[in-house]
Request: fold
Amino acid sequence: MATEATRGARKDGTIADVFTTLGPSANVAPLPARFSEVKKDVLLDMGVAPDTLELAWKGVLKALEPRVQEIISQGGNIIPRISYGEVKGGLSESQRDAIRRTGVVVITGGVPKEEALRWKLHIKDYIAANPVKGFPPDNIQAYELYNSKPQIYARTHESLLNSQKALLSLWNSSTSFPASIDFTTPISYFDRLRIRTPGDRSFTLGPHIDGGSVERWEDTAFRRVWSKILCGGQSGWETFDPFDATWRVNARQDLYNTPNQCTILRCWQGWTSMSSTGVNEGTLRVLPMLSFATAYIILRPFFKPRSIAARTDRSLEEIQNVSLAAEDWELNLEGSEFPGSVPGKTQELNEATHPHLRLAETMVAIPKIEPGDQVYWHCDTVHAVEGEHKGKGDSSVMYIPAVPLCVKNASYLHSQRVHFVRGLPAPDFPGGEGESGFLGRAAPHDITTQQGRRATGFEPFVATSDVHAALVEEANRILFG
Reply:
């Protein structure tokens, strides 16, 4: 078994390092002038004429408003809610369509409630026995923990792996490269956990998308994910498929090599609950209009409101009250603005940077969740955390995404396995000694199932079809030599 790490360690830190809203100042400096050239390079590289871009912008704005009204009307009821039994029996086409449309899903009953509550008790014991770190440092809500036994039990739990397999089946890759990604084989991506206490106002993540910010336009592979949005004109953006991983698999989401930036193909983010948590109790909020929001976000840097276009001293009130009418916006290819984008941070959004999304009204909270329930959201889904926990019990989750097998991910899995054995933080996350000296941390022998050992890189993968035989062979070579 290959045992040497293949990635350099990230610098020490916490989740706050990747969010401007969690830092000492939310003020964002203007981007360097070179970013105006990035805009022009995108158009030149993709063969996009300015008038084509304008048509796309007008088409997206026209389609956006009815969807905004639909979300405001339905609220949390718009989020698909599916039982684990239905997942095992096979998702219906209507369920699949609802998940594709919203970019989010709740899966109930996968893990028995009592088991999930035991996980939380053991995590609290682990925290009490060791010098843990997290955010904020004086009253931790988000823990820099990756290697506790309950996290391993959850990541390798049959119901979670089966749920992930079902959700990955919604994805595809180009018929020219069908063997490059195996969506039938989920692998484990180690992430941290949250135990948010009643009354907390510190762990307030505003609307954002993980996996880079300016990289969406700056990286030449990443920008090709959005080709139908950028090149399609007034209606071509509607053919954009957010579940096509063809270009994503080689996209670089971490051009600035900063902690907390995901470097792999992570199709679904997710968490598994360890508490009974409802609306206003410190839970997740999402923008449930995947394709519409993505098209708008990708086009947004290329446009600015006419009313304030010539001024650099505009006030926040002026920015927030700009007209949303398409005719009141114009192309912005000379400015360096990429609203909400800061190199080395996540992509953040608010009512000023992305006004047409009307985030104050369209970000909806996940309805009541019980211990053992799972929530997943597409990697492009705008999401946030409620600003205040107004409930009476803790709001606790383990972050566990759905990740497919591919060569890029197998390489990461190799490094992650080395870090796990040594008790170090997972490779994408803040570095340091981590849990290497902690009492009671998990070890490879705590992974007891074959499916779990494969997902964590401790047992060779087996091809589920001839199409993926070469991929599986290469993944096993990376992991086991």
Notes: The longest strand covers residues 181-187. The longest helix spans residues 50-74.
